[in-house]
Amino acid sequence: MHSHTGPAAVLLAGGLGRRMGGGDKPLRLLAGRALLDHVLDAIRPQVSAVALNANGDPARFAAWGLPVIADPLPDNPGPLVGVLAGMRWAESQGAADVLSVPTDTPFLPPDLVQRLIAARCAVDVPIACAATGGRTHPVIALWPVVLADALEAALRAGMRKIDRWTAEQGVAVVDFDDYTTDPFFNVNSPEDLARADAVLAAGP
């Protein structure tokens, strides 16, 4: 059911960042570096290739040298369309799976991919997603690219709820509660950015 080809990753930056005052959240600075840099540090060692899902002029991300892939459907239909973009791109790279993560989660764990793969295979379902504190994080997930056509059809039919769609396909939920700091803490506001700064300043 699952290929041994290493997964690719898509970093989701297609949101509008309203709670941060608009603009590109992944370019906000945390401890003197862009949020995007922190996410890349965590993800690059775990995957075979990385792309950024973002709309608008890709030149603003040129310094990172990443492929920038836009949403394949219009009107910002939510994170599922970014996952679809990642599936299509990963397939073009010869990858059987794509990991999706948001670009506002600077503390992603180094064993994320390993644990998602293990959980998915243990129960033989196509998708695995992360959880902490009894809360699932459906955009932090591993997806087989063979689901791309089904996902596109669902999106065109009006599907917007990511957890509803994953439940229909079959999803393993993986708890990461063994980490002291929530590895999926996401920066949604200036206050969150200050909290993340404090966590980094306190050290590991």
Descriptive account of the structure:
32% of the residues lie in helices and 21% in strands. It has 204 residues and is α/β, with parallel strands linked by helices. The chain has one domain (8-202): Spore Coat Polysaccharide Biosynthesis Protein SpsA, Chain A (Alpha-Beta Complex). Strand 7 and strand 8 (135-144) form a beta hairpin. Helix 2 runs antiparallel to helix 4 (148-156). The longest helix is centred in the middle third of the chain and has 14 residues, at 79-92. It is globular and about 45 Å long. The mean pLDDT is 92. GTP binds at residues 12-14, 25, 53, 71, 104.
Number of domains: 1
Low-confidence stretches: none
Quaternary state of this entry equals single chain
Shape: globular
* Coarse structural class: alpha/beta
Number of separate strands = 9
CATH class: Alpha Beta
In N-to-C order, the SSE pattern is: EEEHEEHEHEEHHEH
Q: Order of strands side by side in the largest beta sheet?
A: 5-4-1-6-8-7-9
| Approximate helicity band | 25-40%
Give a quick account of the main beta sheet: strands, pairing sense, barrel closure.
7 strands, mixed
Number of helices: 6
Please name the CATH topology: Spore Coat Polysaccharide Biosynthesis Protein SpsA, Chain A
CATH architecture designation: Alpha-Beta Complex
